[in-house]
Amino acid sequence: MTGEDDVAYASAVSLLQLYRKRALSPVEVARFLLDRLDALQPRINAFCIVDREGALAAARESEERWQRGEVVGRLDGVPVTIKDLLLMRGFPTLRGSRLVDPDQDWSEDAPATARSREAGAIILGKTTTPEFGWKALGDSPLTGITRNPWDLSRTPGGSSAGAAAACAAGIGPLHVGSDGAGSIRIPSAFTGVFGLKPSFGRVPAYPSSPMGLLSHVGPIARTVADAALMLTVLSGPDDRDPYALPPVDSEYLDGLEGGVRGWRIAYSPTLGYAKVGPEIAASTLDAAGRFEALGAIVEEVDAIFASPRDALLTLWAAGAAKLLAAFPSERKALIDPGLVATAAEGERISAVDYLGADLVRTSLGQQMAAFHRKYDLLLTPMMPIPALPVGQDLNEPATERHWIDWSPFSYPFNMTRQPAASIPCGLTRTGLPIGLQIVGPLYADDRVLRAAHVFETTQPERRPPLG
Fold first, then answer.
1. 345 domain residue, yes or no
2. Number of C-beta neighbours around residue 100 at 10 A
3. What confidence tens digit (pLDDT) does each residue in 56-102 have?
4. 407-424, pLDDT tens digit by residue?
5. Are the beta carbons of 34 and 51 closer than 8 angstroms?
6. Catalytic annotation on 374?
7. Is 83 a catalytic residue?
8. CATH number of the domain residue 188 falls in
9. If we measure between CA atoms, which residue out of 281, 267, 261, 348 comes closest to residue 313?
């Protein structure tokens, strides 16, 4: 491995192999990626914090361990980033907001950060997010606009905006994101990388999100194997999360090669209610056909459930209201106006209405559990549109009033808590990425990864023109 792009786009799995053979060192990789970060940050604005000193210190320690043959964990020497909604000790977690006081105790790691450190990862820094992760776009009042490496005039999506942009731009192989209504999968689709929203509780979270059971933590990576490796690390136990699932004994890398022959897979082009652009419809239909060629039994289905949009918006707006209630009302001028408006809607929601929305969520989970008695997986388009221009909140302002209106495929599976992934499946004529969503039954994260891995073998490697 000699070329610059070879290092920039190296997978975590391949880096570990190179370290093992002493063909490359963690220090060399860290220095290269930090230099790349410095060069690309002015163009894409993916980071809000860069821990150069800490990353190089961790790289030197990792290099010494590899030389001694005393590797500490699965990610020893592998660069990782942390989304700025998650705690990272020694640095403020400002969550894309001017409301958060940076002058407070920042001595604690979130579970995902802690597990990454324990596994020997080199943490490069913290990635940008829209304010409190409230929307699926890549801008915030605090850090400004994060841009899509495929087209700098486009958003990378959100709320894991910087994580996906950095991943696509070759600034590290592994990135920790979070997903409350699509915030891992939307930017993964918009930037042409792989992102997994695991089953709820698979990755412990702390502090708790105001969005409650909607919010998941998971990996963003350029390869499915890397995401599987990272999920094994992130799913380690942490008693600060009372909703965390029991740890699994197996490795998510195990069984990836098994394929999908004989599996029954449903493909829904619209879920019965979504409007999808023709290029995306064609690309995702072709992707569904690839699964058939791989030996699966693929059946096209239409409506599976009624659109849960109104119930999701009730839960989301209530969470936003709870979030902003912790801050003085006179500071509203500092907040993203869209978040203020959403919280205002939440303030008008009664407890009865909230519980009604929660019952819709329960019913949706029951419907999908019944659906998966027949089907091993569900395929859908991930996004019905390509990445929006920066500064544009709505795709069709005449018919939309909230960002969730242009992301109809994402939020249902936050409500059901199922594992769902976005994997690249093509490009538009203008060169913007298209993503396919793969949804599995609750707790079948390994099944989603296995299907994604075999589909990945049918796709060419795609890199943005930025580098």
1. yes
2. 16
3. 999 999 999 999 999 999 999 999 999 999 999 999 999 999 999 99
4. 999 999 999 999 999 999
5. no
6. no
7. yes
8. 3.90.1300.10
9. 348
